[in-house]
Design a protein that fits this description.
alpha+beta; 943 residues; seven-stranded mixed sheet; six-stranded antiparallel sheet; single chain
């Protein structure tokens, strides 16, 4: 095998002699030429053995070539590797002719991506009967003389293809080579037919304006003078009149690529455009020819849409005969030469300048000429003069006042829409271009076929969009609407923020906050939303660090919603947020966090979460999410417990204060020994939201502000409704829980729930119960008891008679402090008999003791809980004044006067008597410092 020389000129030696290659051997010395002009850096990526193998494959392909034939060899399992990775080797061998290399490389690149190695030697060979007998030398500058021929060898390495992919590529390459050969072979016949068309215009008495004909002749001659690459021609014959005539292919065979009848010049989608009103209008119109784009892309030379020139044809007597369709590609001179020097274009330009009234040597005239010179040249060939004049004047106006502009032209055959879009250069990027393209293809009901960005002088960028269409009439869209949409697309977020703030009269301080939002936030939310978020951020600080907002995205379903949490100073951990939301009845689907601000001490964190209703029901946001905001913030502030009862906001539509009533009764049932857990009780209420609402309504009817006037009727109706609903409850546990709730509410005698200002006075919810009427209580049953429930403290006070005394115990038994107190009260009955007829006992459980706190801190928290507990007890206790018993203000009483309430110290409260008497004094309670025995200055009940 001949030695392989890489990246060097082939050695000039006498060609090797020998017969035709036999047995698939490669002709001598192809390797010397194959890599001679390949880039050194590409060749360096291969081992010598791999290059030798590639040269061998190429040589085998050359050996098989016969004169006038083409060889397409695609070796999938080539045995050639580049940097250790196998490659597919493509070798195309053809008689040397124009357009081969560009056409082949274009097809390979479009089909298989960027090539890894490309080499294209032209070699001189001698053919024999079996193929190439001998490689004679470098054919780059030689000419065939009959005894030898010049072959073009295109050798390309690409990424690994499958067998099916390789077969498909080979088929496309063979078809391409047929088109290239047809275009080259028919080049002279096409020029001859062009000269015939020129002669028809010059000598036949065509019924057209002489100036138009003269310009058409000049244009066709200009095309012939190497300003147009002719690739195909086809004759059409017209028969009939102006309104119903038909244009059909003539019997003459086409030339070049149009010799293939399957190549369509005009089509809409996959259907050929035959005789449309627009085609008839052209044939019967004043213009001798038309210039536009074909639907087909050129596969020969350059892979762009073919230029199509339709030339009217006439008989010798000047009668319309039909159309000569010419397809090809304008050469570079068509794009670089002045429009004033190109026939057909110059007449358009001269007409527009004349109608403008500008002197071409003045500033405005020169500016107009510059507009025409810089107008997209392909578009300039196609656009009618009236539209061009309108567009040119519009572009001229952009020089004085740059702004968004969209200039639309629909193709006269309704195949595509051409839109010139001007936008501020500093607002243009690939993202803006993609969005504008998507918008245009949507409004014009088509597809984005092409776009051509340009950056002329000044502050505007120009993009020429081509929207292809497949059927139907092109939609008519108002220019103002298109420009408004494009303004929205290219308008920056800061622009929109300023405009929105101005339109809404938003305070500058809020606008300044919104302007600090991050890029990730801006990608997700509009300026209008940002200003609303800024308003919430402005209301939070270190003292009031949180705000929230429930809302719904436009694409969310009724059972979905979103939530923003705004927190000052630090982010809120998911482990803190999610359990609260889950207890309210939400499932958290996704979460993202945005930071606002630069100063660590003033940072605000926006947590945006997508939610779903855990119960699968619609999420009601008709109140703007106020109900759920109340539920979340009540837990956050520590006003209510974070438990399953909060789901009643979701299922029953109850506010946190209303839920507290049902939670309190549930907690009391736990203290009364009900076997079901709090989670189970809460779940039961959530399973029957109508009953839960009814229980709360019954509570209001019996003890609310209107209880004494209309409560009895309402309570009777509600009780009956609840009992009817119980008939539909299949689960015995659920039935038991609901009946216990019903019983507790009916046994309730008083509550401070409806008294204003209890929280501000440091009081919790207090409910007085007729213990004798409560089902399921263990013996002994008290005469009355008060249950206190709040976020700081829980407790009970049991009394076994109207006049009873007993101590108050600090309990550490959260789950059964009532059981503890009940056991103690039995022992107290004997002791209290000396002082009062029967015993009493109270117990409270502090809920906010500091974990790991010091003795003093724990004592302080316990004292606070004790004050809350005692004050809550007194809030529903009758007082005695000069005129007799005074009921507590705002409390509905369903029992007789009950003013006797005396307490004493017990375990954990030995030093609290003075505190209790101070509370009594503050309340103005009739016993004053005799309220608690054992105080430093109080009354001793034992004496």
């Amino acid at each position: 095998m001949a030695s392989l020389k890489t990246a060097s000129q082939p050695k000039k030696t006498v060609p090797a002699k020998g017969g035709a290659a036999k047995g698939g051997e490669r002709p001598g010395r192809l390797a010397d030429y194959l890599l001679a002009r390949a880039p050194a850096e590409d060749v360096a990526a291969y081992e010598v053995a791999d290059l030798e193998r590639a040269a061998d494959l190429a040589g085998r392909a050359v050996a098989r070539h016969k004169k006038g034939d083409c060889i397409v060899a695609i070796d999938v399992d080539s045995g050639v590797a580049r940097q250790g990775r196998p490659v597919t080797v493509v070798t195309v061998v053809n008689d040397n002719m124009p357009f081969l290399f560009d056409s082949i490389l274009g097809e390979i690149t479009e089909s298989a991506g960027e090539p890894l190695l490309v080499t294209h030697p032209v070699v001189t060979v001698r053919h024999g009967k079996a193929g190439v007998e001998e490689i004679l030398g470098d054919g780059g500058f030689a000419k065939g003389d009959g005894s030898h021929d010049r072959l073009s060898v295109v050798h390309v390495h690409i990424g690994r293809l499958s067998a099916d992919q390789a077969e498909a590529l080979a088929g496309r390459l063979r078809k391409l080579l047929v088109q290239v050969r047809a275009a080259v072979t028919d080049w002279k016949p096409m020029l001859a037919r062009l000269d015939q068309a020129i002669s028809e215009f010059r000598y036949a008495p065509v019924p057209l304006d002489k100036a138009h004909v003269t310009e058409a002749i000049a244009f066709l001659e200009w095309l012939r003078d190497d300003n147009f690459t002719f690739l195909g021609m086809r004759e059409f014959k017209y028969t009939g009149g102006e309104k119903s005539g038909t244009l059909e292919r003539a019997d003459k065979p086409g030339l070049g690529i149009l010799s293939d009848p399957d190549v369509l010049v005009l089509r809409r989608g996959t259907e050929a455009v035959t005789t449309t009103p627009e085609i008839r209008a052209f044939l019967h119109g004043p213009e001798p020819l038309i210039v536009t784009k074909a639907n087909a892309k050129s596969s020969v030379h350059r892979r762009i849409y073919l230029d199509y020139i339709g030339v009217k044809t006439y008989t010798a007597k000047g009668t319309l005969l039909g159309e000569l369709r010419i397809v090809g590609l304008f050469t570079s001179t068509a794009y670089t030469r002045s429009v004033m020097k190109i026939p057909y274009l110059r007449s358009k330009a001269e007409t527009i300048i004349a109608k403008s009234g500008f002197n071409p040597s003045d500033h405005s005239g020169k500016a107009l000429i510059n507009v025409l010179e810089s107008y997209p040249r392909d578009e300039l060939f196609q656009v009618p003069v009236p539209i061009l004049r309108k567009h040119a004047e519009a572009i001229l106006g952009l020089i004085e006042r740059p702004r968004v502009r969209a200039l639309v032209r629909a193709d006269q055959f309704d195949r595509f829409v051409s839109i010139l879009v001007f936008v501020p250069r500093d607002r243009y990027d690939s993202v803006a271009r993609e969005k504008i393209g998507t918008y245009l293809k949507t409004v014009f009901e088509g597809r984005l076929s092409a776009y051509y960005p340009a950056f002329p002088e000044g502050g505007l960028a120009r993009v020429h969009f081509i929207i292809g269409r497949s059927g139907g009439k092109t939609p008519k869209v108002e220019q103002a609407a298109i420009e408004a949409a494009i303004r929205d697309i290219v308008r920056t977020w800061d622009d929109a923020l300023r405009e929105t703030a101005a339109e809404t009269g938003t305070d500058r301080a809020l606008t300044a906050i919104a302007a600090r939002f991050s890029e990730s936030y801006r990608d997700s939310f509009s300026p209008a939303v940002a200003l609303a978020d800024a308003g919430r951020i402005a209301r939070i600080d270190a003292a009031n660090p949180i705000a929230i907002d429930y809302y719904r995205h436009a694409d969310q379903k009724p059972h979905q919603a979103a939530l923003k949490i705004y927190h000052h100073g630090s982010p809120v951990a998911l482990s803190r947020r999610v359990p609260v939301l889950e207890n309210i009845g939400f499932r958290v689907i996704s979460e993202r966090t945005f930071e606002v601000g630069d100063d660590p001490s003033g940072m605000v964190f926006i947590h945006d979460m997508e939610l779903e209703n855990s119960y699968g029901k619609p999420i009601d946001l008709t109140d703007g999410g106020a109900l759920f905001e109340d539920a979340f913030l009540s837990v956050w502030r520590g006003d209510v417990d974070n438990d399953g009862y909060n789901g009643l906001a979701q299922t029953a539509g109850l506010w946190s204060g209303e839920v507290t009533i049902l939670r309190a009764y549930g907690r009391y049932l736990q203290q009364a020994g009900i076997p079901q857990s709090q989670d189970f009780i809460a779940a039961a209420l959530n399973r029957y939201p109508d009953i839960a609402r009814g229980l709360h309504a019954l509570f209001v009817a019996r003890l609310g502000p209107t209880a004494e006037t209309e409560g009895a009727v309402a309570a009777k109706h509600l009780k009956a409704k609840i009992k009817d609903a119980l008939e539909e409850v299949p689960n015995i546990d659920d039935d038991t829980i609901i009946r216990r709730y019903l019983n507790l509410i009916e046994a309730s005698l008083r509550t401070n729930h409806f008294v204003a200002g209890t929280k501000e006075r440091g009081q919790s919810l207090a409910i007085k119960l007729d213990s004798q009427a409560v089902d399921g209580l263990p013996a002994p049953r008290p005469w009355r008891e008060i249950f206190v429930y709040g976020s700081e403290v829980e407790g009970v006070h049991l009394r076994f008679g109207p006049v009873a005394r007993g101590g108050l115990r600090w309990s550490d038994r959260a789950q059964d402090y009532r059981t503890e107190v009940l056991g103690l009260v039995k022992a107290q009955q004997v002791k209290n008999a000396v002082i009062v007829p029967v015993g009493a006992k109270g117990g409270f459980y502090p809920k906010r003791l500091p974990v790991g706190g010091s003795r003093d801190a724990i004592f302080e928290a316990g004292t606070s809980a004790y004050k809350n507990y005692v004050s809550s007890l007194l809030s529903i206790t009758d007082n005695i004044g000069i005129d007799g018993v005074i009921p507590p203000a705002g409390v509905v009483r369903r029992d007789p006067d009950d003013p006797y309430f005396v307490v004493a110290a017990d375990k954990g409260t030995a030093t609290f008597s003075d505190t209790a008497n101070a509370i009594s004094e503050k309340h103005g309670f009739w016993l004053d410092d005799a309220f608690a025995s054992g105080g430093s200055a109080g009354y001793d009940h034992k004496k």
